[in-house]
Amino acid sequence: MMNTLKQNLFLLLAIAPCLSFAQNHIDAPKLGDVSDGNRSAPVHLIDLYDADSILVRPGDQPMLPFSTKVTCGKCHNYAKVSTGWHFNAADSNVTPGRRSQPWILVHQKTGTQLPLSSRGWPGTYKPEDAGLNAWQFAQAFGRHLPGGGLSEKTESDPPGLFWRREISGPLEINCLSCHDAEAGHDQAEYANQIKRENFRWAAAATSGFANVRGAAKDVPDNYDIYSGLPMDDPQLTAPSISYDFSRFNAPGKVLFDIKRRIPNERCYFCHSTKTVSVERWEAEEDVHLTSGMLCVDCHRNGLDHNMVRGYEDEPQAKQNPAAGSFSCQGCHLPDDSDQAPLAGGLGAPIPKHAGIPVVHFEKMTCTACHAGPWPAEQAQLVKTSQAHALGTHSVNRSDVVLPHIAAPVFVREDNGKIAPHKMMWPAFWARLNGKEVTPMAPEEVAALSDTLFTGVDSTRSGDWFTFKEDQIAQVLKRLSAADSSRREAAYIAGGKLYRLNKSGKLTKENHAAARPYSWAMGHDVRPASQSLGIRGCGDCHAVNAPIYFSQLKVDSPMETDRHSTHKTMAEFADLSGFYARFFALTFFLRPLLKWLMIFVSLILTGVLLWHGLQGLGSLMKAAGEFKESE
Amino acid sequence: MSSQLLFRIISLLGLIGLTGAIVWAIRSQLVQVAATKQTLRQESLDLAHSLRQWRSLSTPALLNTLKRFFYLATLASALILALTGFLPVIVFGAAVSNLALMLHLVLAPLFALGITALALFWAQRHRFNQTDWERLRQWFRKEKSAAPQENPNVWQKICFWSSLLLALPVIVSTVLMMYPLYGTSGQEWLLHLHGYAGLLLLAVAVLHTYLVLANKRE
To answer: Which of the four, A109, A505, A600, B87, has the lowest number of CB atoms within 10 Å?
Structure first.
């Protein structure tokens, strides 16, 4: 008994320093994490370190890529930074907050556009549900990830990937993705390196003073990156890096142009949106940026890199009241409950909203009137950096390339307010277990039914291939037959779930999994003079007002859906189209109503003044006479 | 406490108070339900009959019919306006919208026209006079009067003029809200003015109806 106690005590004493270290490792700020109050920008003339914490110096053999985790981690708490919003999607302890843009797995051949997110937003699927492990996820979407998070989680790699990971390395957080203000920074090069599985070289390759050649995917599993030996096959090149030695000073340090106030162009690489029908020269920028602000003026963060997303309910979701100060309301609308006036920060104008009934602020978000493209008769196709790989070298510039995302679509959010959203219709093959839908990896579907997917994209449009119903039925039969546990197969597209009935005939039905997925768009904010309502109530309360009646094409590869099916905004805003039209009709009579009310008010005032005052006069007179008689 | 919540609470208390008063009046036999029903039925029948025969009515009878029509129409519209205006706020804590808003909007001009017509028809008749002073004085001194009640009596007159006084902010606030004159806080203030004045107007309308019925019975 005594022995056991002693053993436990010894064990506790032994691990105590480790626990303490671990705690410090996560929370303790480092040299660069705490400001001394000086507002000038610190100069980042620093040593480069590789992933093994060995100094990188000109003339090293072989030359290795610098590791951001080690190099930046010398002065900044990498563990703390890695808890930030851009890196914590796979952390189940993080509150997901308002649903946002998912990663969209696209497979043209099988008619797949599947929203993925590790955050568990309703309507999305976890990458692992679609058969993507951390490695595959990084390969598919690392092009627009700043590293870290799921793409750095090597522990979930299957055993077969062990040697590949030894060569490629983890996809560390690339601090330069955001903080490098150097003109030569090339984020598109990051995407190239991901394609080549050069994960450990990717961050260095984006810097303006390194050049990476070769591809980790080309080398055999037993290749030793420290040997720097050339490949036997002269067609293939092992990954290697060369630095611009002129950038190293005499002691071997390199100057980085690191900015805390991140330039907008860095954000834009991953957060651009293009309306396909709008030419670049016609497009406007967000009014905040035009006025000289930076994205990070509102989307702020501390050392934990937990970015302010800026939506209305964020303070409650994050249990961080300060987040509310950087939302639209936080900057533009004074709140009497604030201890000090917060509105008007950064010179934000305080809007008067003259003549706009308060019900609008209860039922709509600020963005409904102020953000996104002005709503038109039809929601437009838009392309985004993350969904369409915008900014990368091999981007498909076709207007109709998958995934198809439409905007603006006015959707009622979970808080009951209507907001402009981007929207996509999920399309994917799945296994059914009762009501539960589990997506299938497109490659698995393609492998089982290759001969049935006959589409050829000769123009490289990237658009859907048209599927006929009998084609879907045949694929479903094959998929069902191929499943060892005899689970039913289904195809989801255009808001419907297609399945085979007992007699083997194709049926389609409504299903929760087939509902469109949408996410709020906060930008681009238009100037006040281009906001909905600026021309009067008729901007929205007209019989064909786009905010209610703009049409959205139900997007699907199905031949039956492709040219005819539309829905109106009112359906997504949970409004009755009949009511909206009827209510709009009352606005034709509104001028009459105003005049009637003014006329009535004048008559009432006249009656009150004439008869009322005379009557009061009679009472006063009677009172006076009574007083005299007393 | 937000002004919206305060309005919700006051409206709720106001409507509970009114309902309580009506229940109390019925239970204490101040209002007899059967007799009231009978009176209302008779009024409605008379009105329907007069409206059907309006071509053959003499001018005073026609005016009388119009007065009755406007009175009932205004009362009914006021009741529906109160329901559509207060219930969404009280029950759901939300702004008036959808069907309630439509009804509110459609009936608002009817109410405005009705109360204006009543003002024009009844102002002369409801003008205060020296008898009213006497009645008030007696009431304050708790003296009994042998003289029969006038029609309208002083309390009906007070209710009538109060209704007009309260209808004015109710109507003017809607007009002002429809013009781009006031910002968000101004709009909110006008909305509360509309609501509070409407609540008082409802109370006065109920009291007036009671007095009319009571006077008729006597």
So the answer is: A505
Q: For residue A359, list chain B residues with Cβ-Cβ distance below 8 A.
A: 95-97
- ipTM summary value: 0.90
How far is the C-alpha of A86 from the C-alpha of A305, rounded, in Å?
A: 8
Give the closest residue to A63 by CA, choosing from A256, A252, A241: A241
Residues of chain A whose pLDDT is less than 70? Answer: 1-27, 563-564, 628-630
How much helix, strand and coil, in percent to the nearest 5, is found in chain B?
80, 0, 20
Cβ–Cβ of B119/A607 closer than 8 Å?
Answer: yes
Testing the interface with B: which of A358, A418, A593, A596 to mutate, by most B Cβ within 10 A?
Answer: A358
Q: Is the pLDDT of residue B213 over 80?
A: no
State the pLDDT at residue A199: 94
φ, ψ of residue A28 in degrees (nearest 5): -70, 125
Rg of chain A over all Cα atoms, to the nearest angstrom: 31
Task: Give pLDDT, residue A312.
Answer: 87
Q: What is the pLDDT of residue A21?
A: 46
Dihedral sign, Cα of residue B195, residue B201, residue B204, residue B205 = negative
What is the identity of the amino acid at A495? G
Chain A interface, Cβ < 8 Å to B: 333, 351-359, 361-363, 576, 579, 582-583, 586, 590, 593-594, 596-598, 600-601, 603-605, 607-608, 610-612, 614-616, 618-619, 621-623, 625-626
Q: Do B116 and A603 touch (CB under 8 A)?
A: yes
The string of pLDDT tens digits covering residues A203-257 is: 999 998 999 999 999 999 888 888 878 788 888 888 999 999 999 999 999 999 9
A63 half-sphere exposure, CB direction, 13 A CA radius: 17
CA–CA separation, A555 and A246 (whole Å): 53
Dist CA A91 CA A81 (whole Å)? 14
Q: Give dist(CA A568, CA A566) in Å, integer.
A: 7
Where b means 16+ CB within 10 Å and e means fewer, A426-458 reads bbbbbbbeeeebebbbbeebbebbeebbebeee
Q: Count Cβ atoms within 10 A of the Cβ of residue B56 and give its class: 0-12 exposed, 13-18 middle, 19 or more buried.
A: exposed
Contacts of B122 (CB under 8 A, 6+ apart): B67, B160
Nearest CA in chain B to A578: B98
Enumerate the residues of chain B whose CB falls inside 8 A of the CB of residue A600.
Answer: 112-113, 115-116, 171
Distance CA B73, CA B116 (A): 12
Q: Using CB atoms, which residue from B119, B124, B183 is nearest to A354?
A: B183
Say how far apart CA A362 and CA A384 lie, in whole Å. Answer: 30
Residue type, B44: S
Interface test with B, best of A329, A601, A613, A621 (most B CBs within 10 A): A601
Give the closest-approach CA distance of B92 to chain A in angstroms.
Answer: 13
Coil, strand or helix at A70: helix
Is residue A307 a contact partner of residue A146, using CB atoms and an 8 Å limit? no
Is B161 an 8 Å CB contact of chain A?
yes
* CB distance A359 to A423 below 8 Å: no
Answering whether pTM is above 0.90, one says no
Q: Which residue of A350, A594, A597, A614 is the best one to mutate when testing the B interface, meaning the one whose CB has the most B CBs within 10 A? A: A597
Q: In terms of Cα–Cα distance, which of A401, A355, A372 is closest to A541?
A: A355
Using a CB–CB cutoff of 8 Å, tell me whether B54 touches chain A: no
Measured between alpha carbons, how far is residue A559 from residues A112, A269, A279, B137 in Å?
15, 35, 30, 87
- Residue whose C-alpha is closest to residue A489's, from A454, A452, A518: A452
Q: Which of chain A's residues have a Cβ under 8 Å away from the Cβ of B129?
A: 615, 618, 622
Kindly report the CA angle at B158 between B153 and B163, in degrees rounded to 5? 125
Chain A residue nearest residue B114, CA to CA: A600
